[in-house]
Amino acid sequence: MRDARGDVRRPIGLRLWLSGGWLALLTVAALCAPWLAPKDPLMQDLFLGRMPPFWMEGAEPGYLLGTDSLGRDVLSRILYGARLALIVALVAGTLTCVIGATLGLMAGYYRGWTDRVISRFVDIWMAFPPVLFAILLIAVLGPGLVSIIIAIVIIDWTRFARVIRAEAMSQGAMDYVASAQVAGRTRFGTMLTEILPNVLPTIIALLTLEMGIAVIVEAILSFVNLSISTDSPTWGGMIAEGRTSVHQAWWVLVFPLITLFLTVLSFSQLGEGLKDRFDPVLR
Amino acid sequence: MALLRNILIRLITTLVTLFGVAVIVFVVIRVVPGNPIAMMLPPGATDADIARLQAQYGFDKSIFEQFVIWLGGVVQGDFGQSISLRQPVAQLVLGRLPATLELSLMALLMAVLIGGTMALLGTLFRNTRTEGAVDVTAGMALSIPDFLWGLVLILLFGVLWPVFHISGRISPSLNIDFTTNFYLFEALVRLRFDVVADLIGHMFMPALALAIPLAAIIAQLLKQSLKETMHLDYVTLARTKGYGENHVILREALPNAVLPTLTLVGVQFTFLIGGTVIIERLFSYEGLGNMAIDAVINRDLPLIQGIVILFALLFTLVNLVVDMLYVVLNPRLRHA
Lengths: 283, 336
Fold this sequence. Notes:
- The complex is a heterodimer.
- Chain A is mainly alpha-helical.
- Chain A has a single domain (14-26, 64-278), classed as MetI-like (MetI-like fold), CATH 1.10.3720.
- Chain A has ten helices and no strands.
- Chain A has helices at 13-31, 33-36, 74-110, 112-126, 130-141, 145-172, 175-182, 187-223, 235-244, 250-278.
- Chain A starts with 12 loop residues before the first helix and ends in a 5-residue tail after the last helix.
- The relative contact order of chain A is 0.15.
- Chain B is mostly helical.
- Chain B folds into two domains: 2-75, no CATH class; 96-297, MetI-like fold (Orthogonal Bundle).
- Helices cover 77% and strands 0% of the residues of chain B.
- In chain B, helix 1 (2-30) packs antiparallel against helix 13 and helix 7 crosses helix 9 (193-230).
- The longest helix of chain B has 38 residues, at 193-230.
- The A-B interface holds A 120-121, 123-124, 126-132, 135-137, 139-140, 142, 212-213, 216, 219-220, 223-224, 239, 243, 246-247, 250, 253-254, 257, 260-261, 264-265, 268-269, 272 and B 13, 16-18, 20-21, 24-25, 28-29, 31-33, 139-140, 142-145, 147-148, 151-152, 154-155, 158-159, 166, 270, 273-275, 277-278, 281-282, 289, 292-293, 296-297, 299, 304, 307-308, 311-312, 315-316.
């Protein structure tokens, strides 16, 4: 978007650099996992169970971040786990965004019965505990990547619909929308060419936040053992295993937790940063 | 009259929402693959046995018929029989509700204390490094969901510096014969402070994990509205009367700044209650959420229904209470 007062751009800022940098690193890790991972993430070696990370006494060379109770390499599992986390973030995040934002736009701009129906559904959705809803859906759909993505879309579309509805409503009341209609645009055309570009910054910020949330939902589902098949490495699955053996082998919990923590933090900081940057009022 | 009409409309929409929740849960869980009845019978059971039990639980009828029968029971307070635990759902769910309520209220209390303190500090030391620190802390705390805070707390206070219990609700040795399931409340009333300490030792981490994101929201909102209130004329008047900064913030600005925060905290509190599902699992705390996850894993349809409806009821009640508090606390609406 162009700023009427001239192009006074603020510096991108440390926050955007750091969060963007971490996510870029993670993407590389996910894409190149087969070449970067020192070991096979599924390879078990019961003689090498619960080996500590490299700087501690008794560490096994070649296993930088130690091993879990089955002797699997923690670092390799984190790298492979990044694949699933990022796929879920991208696909589930984008689908949720498209569906939720479309419904929100329609409710906020068309108003009337469209709004009433959509808002009623949003109200009902808000009365569900989201985590329980997600677990229930996975139980119905069966475990697997596609199920996780569908579950996230079904649960989280309201997050977009609520916010975008409110934005579209306030944009719809503006003079420029009325003048577009006077000029002969159809209502649908006006929605796409006038309303959408103005709510786009909010959509992008929400999308980034949603990607972080999708990663968490996947981790929670893996944690209760309902994600994809148990032998693919997932951060949530690693955390679940680490939680049970936290007193014997803290590294099995700590390393995937740090990775997940930084990833979720980066997504949300990226979203906040982009929001500030795009927001014409704050700029 | 307008107030009465508003309340009536609210009640009707609440009922519609609950009905919608019931319909959705009912339909969703009945497309679950896997026969819940087959799971509860020993391996040698005949087809006739399965059919008999299915008829007993009503699973042989159509979804619509089942729904009507279930709804008829619910109206009379009968939520059916749990398949995996073989007890009435209402009894099971109400038995676990106090544990979840105590945890949620403890978390709310923590969130208000932490968030309120942060907001006041940020206002008292505005335009200094302290305010910056409050902003950054709140921003970080808000970015990370309760599940991850729970894990971080387990590492900090369960492993690195093990001062709190990382699982359960009470130590078995201290399980005095409670007459209610509100353990904390009852222990306080009976002046058993050793039990109170033990209960809080178990609750501390799960409650704090739930409280951190809400505390951050309270800190941000309350600080923002305090900032706006500080510029109002009556605050300036109090200052010219010679009141100190502490008095001006606490006695003059705070009562008016609380209102806008309250409404949002209501919605956020329902999110907090929703968060208990996974947090209870993480800390093996025997509440509703933990029971819900087991119910899903065991395909215990009547129990799942009961728990989800209770959560939905809880959410709508919280919103109703917040709306009423808003009317009570807002002098402009009181005489409307």
